[in-house]
Design a protein that fits this description.
heterodimer; A: 3-stranded antiparallel beta sheet; B: alpha+beta; 8-stranded mixed beta sheet; 7-stranded mixed beta sheet; 33% helix
Chain lengths: 142, 479
């Protein structure tokens, strides 16, 4: 992997036999988590997320470690999408440390829940410091 | 995209059974045994399913062998198509060894109708099924359960649906575990899981789930077929779905919880998704209670869909459209069972219980022939009815395969065929198709799966189950 350029978070999606692997890179843990949220929205909305509407809402997540935080964060967004038909597309990560985060998010409300993604798994889950930033990987259950 | 598996030495035990010996990796506690012919073996070694089976063989308290069925493929943590038993007294239970879709399973309904007599009305019936049974992310339009009602489903399973007149009395003994595991504890199911599940009873969901109208195409074992009430030319309905968002949330909750406490029990595993805790521990008992409750929800889901199917058939065909439940089997579950005098927790992930005539849990009405097992093919291909064997107890903890098994990712499947092409091919074969979108049709194209006939042939020849009948699809409502 080439050295990371700070402030340029990115992601790519790779097939995983019956599931989907999301590979992330960003200049910081906060940017990585925001990018993970955008990647999830892209999958749930089947394309580039459109403009968010409505008020910002605050979400707080805590986990066992930084990789667990990535999975828990995505699982919270999956839960909100299924139960409230609300897909977060814009993120302002206000605070993050090794095992907790506080974020403001805005998104879109749909007529029907986007049922495509059912869970973020711990299989192959990782968040690693890398030259210039952070990389991460998570497999989604579809 | 597939990945080559790590290379392990194998021993050919029989032409259909290979073993990775316990010495293959230093952390293995038991060998891994894989049922496959040469063709299926060549597919199995292309992904990481063997490496995952070896990882499962490191679980504390695992006994006998870890088994891989001929439809095994890479999952996350535990391979899909895997069986592992742990000692109930001091072994572990692993949510990843059950999977996210707790009690995903299959139930078969048989009618007294012959296909040729009803063919003119077939398209209308399939349309009515698609209209009355929500698929994809759809919610139930008629069953939104209050918290006390949902707790009754979680605790009492199909017995509660019988009280609500959504089941017939004869459905209960025709369901594995009578549709209600006694260890269920609704209090162990999180509020989040209940929020996901309260309006999902009676819905198919997405992925490879379906309701399929079929015809009995060929009978291989007339005695067993007669015992199951099946005959050539007869119309049947196969339902394949599970515990929906509720089950997924239960798995998510407890994988997370066990991941956090594993180290406290001195457990260190090669894959976090295998997170586990001793069955006897507070965490193990909590998961077991929640998993049993989610399993009861799944049986109730298939029962509620059965109610809708019966209504649709009743409207179309009157009394002649009466459907009897042949059986309902789980293929993602962990159950307490006695094997060779030991009390074990048998994890079956993408594997089906297949008890023979002598087993006390085989329903009384099937004691002469063995428990029915249903192996759905990929969309549009044949499904199979098998009978459990007594020999399977020693060969695989009384387990057999669960389906065709994926060989292609959803993305690869969509790149290789369009949904429109898949639809045209199915319709050209006389199959009526209803699906939320063409893209999802392409994801489930038959080419994305192993050859179900070969998979079934291997389990039949290996003695894990016996072929009874083949079912050919004539109408598909895809999830």
């Amino acid at each position: 992997m080439t050295p990371l350029e700070r402030d340029l978070p990115s992601h790519d999606l790779a097939d995983h036999v019956s599931e989907l692997r999301v590979r992330l890179r960003a200049g910081s843990h906060a940017d990585l988590l925001a990018e993970a949220g955008r990647a999830l929205a892209e999958i749930q909305l089947r394309g580039t997320p459109g403009g968010a509407t409505g008020d910002w809402r605050r979400l707080e997540i805590s986990a066992h470690d930084s990789a667990g935080l990535l999975a828990d964060w995505l699982n919270e967004l999956i839960f909100l999408a299924e139960t409230e038909r609300w897909v977060a597309t814009e993120f302002d990560v206000e605070q993050v440390d090794g095992s907790s985060m506080r974020v403001r998010a805005r998104g879109v409300t749909l007529d029907q829940a986007p049922g495509l993604v059912k869970a973020a798994t711990l299989h192959g889950l990782r968040v690693d410091d890398a030259p210039g930033g952070v990389t991460g990987e998570v497999v989604l259950d579809l | 995209m597939t990945h080559a598996t790590a290379t392990y030495p194998t021993i050919a035990v029989t032409p259909l059974l290979r073993e990775i010996p316990v010495t293959a990796r230093s952390d293995m506690r038991v060998p891994v045994r894989i049922y496959a012919d040469d063709e299926l073996w060549s597919q199995i070694v292309k992904d990481r399913s063997l490496e995952q089976a070896v990882n499962v063989a490191t679980l504390p308290g695992v006994v006998g062998c870890v088994y891989a069925m001929p439809d095994v493929h890479e999952g996350y943590g535990f391979p899909v198509g895997g069986v592992a038993a742990t000692r109930a007294a001091d072994g572990v239970i692993s949510p990843g060894g059950v999977g996210y879709d707790i009690n995903c399973g299959v139930r078969l309904l048989a009618s007294g109708l012959e296909l040729e007599a009803v063919r003119p009305r077939l398209e209308a019936v399939v349309h009515e099924l698609s209209r009355s049974i929500p698929s994809g992310p759809g919610r139930s339009p008629w069953l939104d359960l209050s918290v006390p009602e949902l707790d009754r489903v979680l605790r009492d399973g199909c017995n509660y649906l019988l009280e609500r007149e959504l089941a017939l009395p004869e459905d209960i003994p025709a369901t594995e575990a009578s549709g209600a595991l006694p260890g269920a504890d609704p209090a162990r199911v999180s509020d989040k899981a209940k929020r996901r599940g309260h309006d999902q009873l009676g819905t198919i969901g997405s992925g490879n789930h379906f309701v399929e109208v079929q015809v009995v195409d060929e009978v291989f074992d007339p005695v067993a077929a007669a015992a199951y009430g099946l005959a050539t030319g007869q119309l049947t309905v196969l339902i394949h779905t599970g515990s929906r968002g509720l089950g997924h949330q239960v798995c998510t909750d407890y994988v997370r919880r066990m991941d956090q406490v594993m180290a406290d029990y001195g457990i260190h595993l090669p894959d976090r998704q295998l997170a586990c805790a001793p069955l006897a521990s507070p965490e193990g008992q909590a998961y077991f209670g929640a998993m049993c409750a989610a399993a009861n929800f799944a049986w109730s889901n298939r029962q509620a869909i059965t109610f809708s199917v019966r209504k649709a058939f009743g409207r179309a065909f009157g009394d002649a459209g009466r459907l009897h439940l042949v059986y309902d089997v789980a293929h993602n579950i962990a159950k307490l069972e006695e094997h060779a005098g030991q009390s074990l927790c048998v994890h079956r992930k993408g594997a089906t219980r297949a008890f023979g005539p002598a087993h006390p849990e085989t329903p009384v009405r099937y004691r002469a022939v063995g428990q029915p097992v249903f192996i759905p093919g990929s969309m549009g291909t044949a499904s199979y009815v098998l009978a459990g064997t007594d020999a399977a107890l020693a060969l695989s903890f009384g387990s057999t395969c669960h389906g065709a098994g994926r060989v292609m990712s959803r993305g690869e499947a969509k790149r290789s065929r369009t949904g429109a092409e898949v639809r045209r091919e199915l319709e050209a074969r006389g199959i009526v198709v209803r699906c939320p979108s063409s893209g999802e049709l392409a994801e489930e194209a038959p080419t994305a799966y192993k050859d179900v006939e070969r998979v079934v042939d291997v389990v039949h020849r290996a003695g894990l189950a016996r072929k009874v009948a083949r079912l050919r699809p004539v109408g598909v409502v895809k999830g």
